[in-house]
Amino acid sequence: MYENMTFEFILNRMLDRVPGNIDKREGSVIYDTLAPAAAELVQMYVELNINLNLAFAGTSGGEYLERRTKEMGITRQLATKARRKGLFYGSGNTPINIPIGSRFSIETLNYVALGKLAEGEYIMECEISGTAGNEPSGAMLPIDYVPGLVRGELADILESGQDEETDEKLLNRYQLHVRKPSTSGNMYQYRQWAFEIPGVGDAKVFPLWDGPGTVKVVIVDANKQPANMGLVEETAEYIETVRPIGANVSVVSGTAKEVDVSATVELAAGYTLQSVTDGFTAALTDYLKSITFTTAYISYAKIGTVLLGTPGVLDYSRLTVNNDLVNVELADEEVPVSGIISLGV
């Protein structure tokens, strides 16, 4: 808005107000007097422009975006810790119990035993928040001595750890709230309720899916992948506490629809087939995320465009998607995910 308010523009405008019979050349007293003031005014306009952008949700970010969304009762979702299933065995591969509070390490992360699920099975919580706690699996090493312990394993995800909500997702939730008002348990409200659970990346609502009073909510995780059972259960439990009386709500995960792509590519100088394959896989994943729950098919032409736009690809031929040359249809609850990527030269 204030792009024209440059140092030269402001200074010249100030000098224009000085009578013509006074020396206004660079180095003159009046010039040297006005120049610092003009510089300060330029800085003021820069800050005014920043403040103007921070005042609107679409151009704001960080703390200031939170201030804007809080006006509508929407707060940033905090990072959460992953909870995993821990399996513990003694001699002879016999399950054994461990003390609550016992700590174990795997790779660079530590987990602590919170509670017992069954004989030799425990809830293990990562000591740091975020998605990192979802990644490792396999053998754990005890930090604290546990009598009789021979082997410990980190297994299934019980509750996914989530990173702090990004500005992008917070803005999306805010815009959904503003642009698609939710009232009396309409479909927009069910979608908003699903988004209030940390880790839910999107949701699709099917009113009256199994007759009067029934609602189905299909969710995916933050990476637009099928949601794990813990996330599904957490979402279902929350919606049960806020749904209208009499509504019969089912919450399920989206079903993965794998997208296999095969093509012959012409490589640019300095690029390897592996680097091009990695770049295309990342770009394809972004495209598939962008169409989750928004379209009824995966575009064959769009995948060709994504391939041609991949750095290192000069041209391509023999492109097939799921072994065919046509668009790939998506069922109502299907989520497109990258499958086998096979590029050749």
TrEMBL record:
Residues 182-253 form the Baseplate J-like central domain. Residues 259-343 form the Baseplate J-like C-terminal domain. It comes from the Bacteria. Pfam families: Baseplate_J_C, Baseplate_J_M. Belongs to the Mu gp47/PBSX XkdT family. This is Baseplate J-like protein. It comes from Oxobacter pfennigii. The lineage of its organism: Bacteria, Bacillati, Bacillota, Clostridia, Eubacteriales.
